[in-house]
Q: What sequence folds into this?
C-alpha cells in the first residue's frame, strides 16, 4: 500500500483528508467522531470572542435532481466559550495523539492574538490556522476577509502570531480578491508556514421569488453569505495553481473548495496541494464519505505507481501555462460513434446554436445519428461535453504533433493579426452561414 | 381461487383495479423530469399523434412552471390528462425515448403529463383565451375524444358549438370503454368538466341524432356538422350460441363494468375470445373481478395477436391464461353458457386451417367476445353523398377531415376504424381547423 500520510509544514496526519474549519468541527464530539471514522485531521471551528448567531443560516443550490452543488452560509465563528473549546481540544488530542488538530483563530488586537495562540498551544493544538477568509459578518467587524483583502494588515497579523507561536501557522486566504497570490506572498513575507485556500466566496445563493427576499431568510431579510461546495472547485483549483506556480509563494498549501471524493483530492494534489480540507460534503453526507476517499486515493496511487503523496504532488503544474504558449497547430475533430449514439441530437443543436454549425443531421434515411462536418469543426469539445452517452463522441487528434506554433511565436515573428480587418485572423476562410439562412431553419 | 377476491364494495373494486399509472408526487416528478435530455427534434414528440412538445412540458415541470407545462400539453391535446393515463405510451412517446436505445428506462412521459394536467384540472386553471364569437355554429354528433377535441378547438376560433350525445356522459370510450385500471371515471369526468367550463360548448346528453329528419334539422340550424360517432356494438362472429345468457360482447361488458363497478356479476370461469387490446382488457378485468380462471383464446399464434405486448403482459400479470391456435366452433349451453367448443388450428400454406379431430369443449360459465366493434353503416347511410370505404369507414380528406358531403366533417373511430383516444383527439382537433377553413 502506498504511504498516504501527510505533512503540512510539520503538521503530520495519517492521511491528507482534514475537516475544514466549519460546523463539522464545532465540538470535540464531532472531531472525535470524525477521527474515529478515519479522517486524518481537523481544523477546529474558528475560535475567538464567541459570537451570537442568527437562526436560518444556510442556503443551498440544487441543479435539477442534484442537491447542494453549492452551499451558502451566514454562520459566524464559534459561539461557544473558549475554555470549553480548549478543554475539548485537549480531550481529542488525548485520544488521537497522531491526528492533526489545528486551531482556527480570529481575534482583533495583538494582545488577543498572543493570548489565544498560547491558549490553543497549551491545549495541545498541532497547528494554527489564521482565518483571514470569512467573507460575511466578521468582515464587517474588521476581521476575516477584511484582513485577507489587505495584504499589509495580513502580513502584520501573521507577524504578531509568529512572535509567540511555536507550532506551524497556516494562513487561510479569501478568494474575494482579484489576485490571490498577493495575500499569499504577504503570508510568506509575514513568516507564515503554510497557506490554505480557498475560504468561501461572497454570494447571494438565490431569491425567494414569492416573498422577494434572498435566502437564507432571517425574519424577512437576508444578507450575503459565503459560498462553497462542488460548484466552487474550479475557482479554487485555479487559485491553487496560481499560488503553487508563483515564484514568490514558497509555502505548502492546504487545498479547500468543493472536495467530496478521492478524485477531487487527487486533482488538488496534482495541482500542488499538500493536503485537502473538506466541509460541504461532510455537511451533506456525514463523516462516512471518508470510507470512499481513502481507498480511492490508495487505489489511484497504486495504479499510477506513486509511493507517497509527495511523488504525485504538483504533477499537473508543469502542464498549466499561459494561453500564449499553447500550440496553435494542435488540431482535434469530433468523432461520433454511430453504434453508441442514441439519437438525442443534443450535439447537433449545441453546435448549431452554440458553436460553429459543424454538425449536420442525416435526413431521410431513418437514422438520428448526426454527422460531423469536418471542415467546420474547430475542435471546441462542446459536442463531446453535452453528449449523454459515455465515450460516444471523442475528439480525435488530426495534426501529427510535429509542428508547434504558439501565439507568442506568432507575435515574435510578426504574423499575429494586429488590425480589425486583418487577413491573418483565425476565422478567415472558415465558413459561416448567411444570417438570413437562420430564418429558413425549422 | 384466483388472485383477486370478488369485489363487493367500491373500496374493494378500487383495490382490485389499482391504477397502473398512479399520480406522481412532487419528488418523483422532479427526479423523473430531471432525467429528460431535452432532445433536439425529440423522437417522443414525433411519436405522439398530437405532437405534444414533450421535452418542453417536462422542462417546465422541472423548473416548477406547472401551469405552463399544462398549457403546453393542452395546446396540442385537449385530452391531455386522459391520454397521459390511457395512451399506449410504451409504443408511442415512451417507446421512442432515446434512453431505450441505451437500455436505460425511458422517461415516464405519461405520468409526468398527468402530474402537470392534474394540477391544472384540480386548480381549474384557465389556460386559453377564446376568440370573439364569429356568428357561426357547428353541430357535433358524439361527445367522444374526437367530438370534444373538435369542439374545444372550434371554440378557440369563435364558433358556437353544440354537441349531441346519445349517452349520459361525455368522453366516449374514455369513460365507457377503457379498462378501469388505466383511468378512473372521476378522472375522466373531471377533465371533461374542466374542458367544458373553459371552452363553453354545450353538450346535450341522452340526445341521440338517430333519424334522417334529425340530421336535416342540424343541417338547417348549423353551418357545419362534425361526425364523431365512433363504432357500434361488438360484431357478431356468427357463432352458434352467441345469444346464450352470460355470453357478452366485450365493448358492452366493459361499459357495464365502468358504470356499475363491483355490482357487475362475472363468472367463475371466463373464456375471452379474441387477440386484440380489448380482449386483453376484458380478460384482465375478468380476473380482477374475481373469476377463478380466465382463458384468453385466440385462433392464431401469440405473435399474430393484434394486442400490444405490454397489454398481454398485463393480462398475464393478473393471472390470465393465454391459449393460442384454438378457434371457437360454438358456444355450448342450455339457455346459459356452459362451455366453448374449440378446434385446434395450424397454418398450412399461409392459411389458417382447423386440425381435423382436434375438437374439444372447455367448460365455462361466461364467454366474452372481443371480436371487434361493428361500423354504424345504417346510421351513416342516412347522410346523402357520404362515401364509405371498403371497410365501411367514412372517407375524409386527410388534411381537413371533410367528408364527401362537404358540410360534414368526421374523425375518430368512425373514420380510422378504431384506434386510440389520442388518435381521435388529434384528428378531431385537426378537423376543427378544416371546418374553420371551410367556413371562413
A:
Amino acid at each position: 500500500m502506498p504511504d498516504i500520510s501527510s505533512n503540512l509544514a510539520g503538521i503530520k496526519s495519517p492521511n491528507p483528508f482534514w475537516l475544514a474549519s466549519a460546523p463539522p468541527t464545532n465540538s470535540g464530539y464531532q472531531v472525535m467522531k470524525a477521527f474515529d471514522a478515519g479522517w486524518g485531521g481537523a481544523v477546529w471551528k474558528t475560535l475567538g470572542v464567541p459570537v451570537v448567531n442568527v437562526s436560518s443560516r444556510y442556503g443551498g443550490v440544487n441543479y435539477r435532481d442534484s442537491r447542494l452543488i453549492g452551499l451558502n452560509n451566514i454562520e459566524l465563528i464559534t459561539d461557544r466559550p473558549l475554555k470549553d473549546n480548549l478543554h475539548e481540544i485537549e480531550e481529542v488530542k488525548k485520544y488521537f495523539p497522531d491526528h492533526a488538530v489545528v486551531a482556527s483563530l480570529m481575534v482583533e488586537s495583538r494582545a488577543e492574538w498572543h493570548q489565544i495562540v498560547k491558549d490553543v498551544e497549551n491545549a495541545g493544538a498541532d497547528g494554527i490556522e489564521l482565518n483571514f477568509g470569512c467573507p460575511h459578518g466578521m468582515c464587517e467587524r474588521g476581521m476575516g476577509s477584511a484582513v485577507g483583502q489587505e495584504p499589509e494588515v495580513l502580513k502584520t497579523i501573521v507577524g504578531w502570531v509568529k512572535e509567540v507561536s511555536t507550532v506551524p501557522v497556516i494562513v487561510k486566504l479569501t478568494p474575494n480578491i482579484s489576485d490571490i497570490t498577493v495575500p499569499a506572498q504577504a503570508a510568506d513575507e509575514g513568516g507564515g508556514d503554510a497557506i490554505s485556500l480557498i475560504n468561501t466566496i461572497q454570494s447571494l445563493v438565490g431569491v425567494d421569488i414569492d416573498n422577494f427576499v434572498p435566502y437564507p431568510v432571517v425574519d424577512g431579510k437576508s444578507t450575503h453569505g459565503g459560498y462553497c461546495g462542488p460548484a466552487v472547485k474550479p475557482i479554487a483549483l485555479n487559485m491553487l495553481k496560481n499560488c503553487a506556480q508563483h515564484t514568490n509563494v514558497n509555502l505548502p498549501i492546504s487545498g479547500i473548495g468543493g472536495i467530496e471524493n478521492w478524485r477531487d483530492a487527487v486533482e488538488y494534489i496534482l495541482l500542488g496541494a499538500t493536503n485537502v480540507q473538506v466541509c460541504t460534503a461532510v455537511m451533506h453526507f456525514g463523516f462516512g464519505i471518508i470510507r470512499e476517499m481513502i481507498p480511492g486515493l490508495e487505489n489511484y496511487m497504486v495504479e499510477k505507481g506513486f509511493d507517497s503523496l509527495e511523488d504525485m504532488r504538483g504533477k499537473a503544474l508543469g502542464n498549466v501555462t499561459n494561453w500564449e504558449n499553447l500550440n496553435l497547430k494542435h488540431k482535434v475533430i469530433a468523432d461520433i460513434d454511430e453504434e453508441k449514439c442514441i439519437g438525442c441530437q443534443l450535439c447537433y443543436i449545441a453546435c448549431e446554436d452554440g458553436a460553429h454549425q459543424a454538425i449536420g443531421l442525416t435526413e431521410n434515411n431513418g437514422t438520428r445519428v448526426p454527422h460531423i462536418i469536418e471542415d467546420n469543426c474547430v475542435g471546441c469539445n462542446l459536442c463531446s461535453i453535452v453528449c449523454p452517452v459515455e465515450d460516444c463522441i471523442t475528439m480525435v487528434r488530426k495534426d501529427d504533433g510535429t509542428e508547434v506554433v504558439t501565439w507568442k511565436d506568432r507575435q515574435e515573428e510578426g504574423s499575429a493579426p494586429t488590425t480589425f480587418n486583418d487577413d491573418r485572423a483565425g476565422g478567415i476562410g472558415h465558413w459561416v452561414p448567411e444570417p438570413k439562412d437562420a430564418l429558413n431553419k425549422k | 381461487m384466483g388472485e383477486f377476491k370478488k369485489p363487493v364494495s367500491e373500496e374493494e373494486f378500487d383495490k382490485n383495479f389499482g391504477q397502473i399509472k398512479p399520480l406522481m408526487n412532487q419528488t418523483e416528478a422532479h427526479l423523473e423530469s430531471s432525467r429528460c435530455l431535452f432532445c433536439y427534434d425529440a423522437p417522443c414528440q414525433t411519436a405522439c399523434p398530437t405532437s405534444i412538445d414533450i421535452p418542453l412540458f417536462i422542462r417546465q415541470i422541472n423548473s416548477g412552471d406547472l401551469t405552463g407545462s399544462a398549457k403546453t400539453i393542452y395546446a396540442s391535446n385537449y385530452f391531455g390528462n386522459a391520454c397521459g393515463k390511457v395512451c399506449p405510451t410504451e409504443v408511442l412517446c415512451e417507446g421512442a425515448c432515446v434512453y431505450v436505445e441505451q437500455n436505460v428506462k425511458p422517461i415516464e412521459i405519461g405520468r409526468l403529463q398527468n402530474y402537470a394536467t392534474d394540477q391544472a384540472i384540480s386548480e381549474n386553471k384557465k389556460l386559453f383565451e377564446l376568440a370573439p364569437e364569429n356568428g357561426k355554429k357547428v353541430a357535433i354528433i358524439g361527445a367522444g375524444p374526437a367530438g370534444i377535441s373538435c369542439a374545444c378547438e372550434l371554440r378557440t376560433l369563435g364558433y358556437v358549438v353544440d354537441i349531441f350525445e346519445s349517452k349520459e356522459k361525455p368522453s366516449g370510450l374514455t369513460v365507457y370503454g377503457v379498462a378501469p385500471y388505466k383511468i378512473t371515471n372521476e378522472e375522466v369526468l373531471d377533465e371533461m368538466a374542466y374542458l367544458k367550463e373553459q371552452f363553453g360548448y354545450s353538450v346535450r346528453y341522452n340526445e341521440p341524432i338517430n333519424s334522417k329528419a334529425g340530421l336535416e334539422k342540424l343541417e338547417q340550424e348549423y353551418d357545419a356538422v362534425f361526425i364523431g360517432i365512433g363504432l357500434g356494438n361488438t360484431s357478431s362472429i356468427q357463432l352458434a350460441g352467441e345469444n346464450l345468457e352470460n355470453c357478452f360482447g366485450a365493448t358492452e361488458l366493459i361499459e357495464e363494468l365502468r358504470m356499475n363497478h363491483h355490482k357487475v356479476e362475472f363468472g367463475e370461469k371466463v373464456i375471452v375470445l379474441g387477440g386484440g387490446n380489448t380482449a386483453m382488457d376484458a380478460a384482465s378485468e375478468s380476473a380482477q373481478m374475481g373469476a377463478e380462471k380466465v382463458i384468453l383464446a385466440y385462433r392464431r399464434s401469440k405473435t399474430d395477436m393484434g394486442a400490444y405486448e405490454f397489454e398481454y403482459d398485463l393480462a398475464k400479470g393478473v393471472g390470465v391464461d393465454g391459449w393460442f391456435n384454438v378457434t371457437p366452433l360454438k358456444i355450448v349451453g342450455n339457455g346459459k353458457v356452459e362451455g366453448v367448443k374449440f378446434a385446434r388450428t395450424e397454418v398450412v400454406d399461409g392459411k389458417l386451417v382447423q386440425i381435423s379431430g382436434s375438437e374439444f369443449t372447455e367448460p365455462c360459465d361466461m364467454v366474452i367476445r372481443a371480436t371487434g366493434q361493428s361500423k354504424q353503416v345504417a346510421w351513416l347511410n342516412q347522410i346523402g353523398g357520404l362515401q364509405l370505404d371498403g371497410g365501411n369507414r367514412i372517407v375524409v380528406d386527410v388534411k381537413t377531415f371533410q367528408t364527401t358531403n362537404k358540410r360534414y366533417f368526421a374523425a375518430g373511430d368512425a373514420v380510422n376504424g378504431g384506434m386510440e383516444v389520442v388518435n381521435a383527439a388529434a384528428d378531431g382537433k385537426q378537423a376543427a381547423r378544416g371546418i374553420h377553413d371551410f367556413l371562413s
Q: What stands out?
A: The mean pLDDT of chain A is 96. Residues 241 and 320 of chain A are 8 Å apart (CA to CA). Chain A has two domains: 6-319, 323-440. The domain at 323-440 of chain A is CATH 3.30.70.20 (Alpha-Beta Plaits).
